[in-house]
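Fold it.
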Amino acid sequence: MKYYLGIDIGATKTAALIADENGRQISTGQGGPGNHETVGFDGMEKAMCEALNNALSNASLPLDRIAGAGFGIAGYDWSDEEPFMQKTINKLGLDAPFKMVNDVTLGLLAGTNEGWGVAVVSGTGCNCRGWDREHKREGRVTGYGVLMGEGAGGTELINHSMQIIGYSWTRRLPPTKLVTAFIAHVGAKDLEDLIEGYTKGLYAIGADAAPLVFQTAEQGDAVAYDIIKWAGTELGEMANAVIRQLDFEDLEFEIALIGSMFKSGEALIAPMRETVHAIAPAAKLIPAEVKPVVGAILLGMEASGLSLSLEKRNQIKTSLSK
């Protein structure tokens, strides 16, 4: 029996999964944050080692039984980081081939039926990556959110909402029920106190407040509705950028929707779909319901040279999702 390792290295935690060639889960392990941008490469190594050792211990499996490994790495954004990533992974002592990708690509591998297409992330932040059918060409956005004008995750949604609330205060735009919702959220005295406290850093309003925007839109607030439509359109434009890079406009392909923002449903997805279909009418937007670390297992199998039929691939995904 051959065994495969998948590791999803995130900003808040690192998850390891070991599975056999039939997709049967053998064990899991967890480590701390591993994004080198915040914890450095030493921190990345520590997080991977912790997750890997836990998984191996839980499986009572020696490291040399691993036949292939896949790594999804948060913060792996630029080609000049590749040698540092490889050096850090080599410290694990694996005697098996491995592949490494940005962590968004794990969602693409796990979230689409055939493991190619486009993945759009909208959670606390946002990102978008794409892969062609042969995994030879990659498309991407920068992944730097507000800094590079890319939207929209919860952070970008709230930033935009507070700008609109500011416009309401200065009467640049009509009143909105978002004012009442955000005043209650932070415990401000009134709108002026909300604006002053927010601009002075006294009131922290982050991505966790994003549900307030959707709730207010459901109450019939046109301003909140327009903000959500803006967010969906922005996510669609991110996808379109990657679609153009990969020349997918005339193809039938899937776009995996990853992250908590998509739980809001059609309010966000409908304007995104409309934006995408303007240039790629055959694209299919699908919620990604498989854990990204499953994508890391599939990547590890690919690294080992294992060729999977569509039926086998779906069998493995189903088995590991239980």
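Residues 3-112+290-320 form a domain with the Nucleotidyltransferase; domain 5 fold (CATH 3.30.420.40).
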